[in-house]
Amino acid sequence: MMNKEEIAPHVREIARVLEGKIDEQEIEKDLDNYLNVYKMSLEASKRHIVRKYGGDPNALTKGERKMLSQLGLSEQTVDLLVRVMSSTTREVTVGGNPKTILSGILADENGSTVKFTVWDVSKADLKAGENYLIRYAYTKEWSGQPEVHLGTRAVVELRPQDEVKVPDNVTVPQIAGGYSAPIVAKVADLKENMNNVTLTGRVLSLKPKEVETPSGKKTMFTGVIADETGKVEFTAWHDFGLREDEVITVTNAYVKGWKSIPRLSFGEKGQVTRPKVQFPTGDQLSQAVKKGIDELERIGWGSDIIITGTVVDIKKGTGLIFRCPECNRVVQKGVCQVHGKVQQVPDLRIKVVVDDGSAAITAVMKRDVTERLTGITLKTALDEARETMDPEGVGQRFEEMLLAKPIELRGNVISDDYGLSINVTDARILVPDVRTEAEALLGKIEVI
Question: How far apart are CA 391 and CA 319, in angstroms?
Answer without folding.
Answer: 8
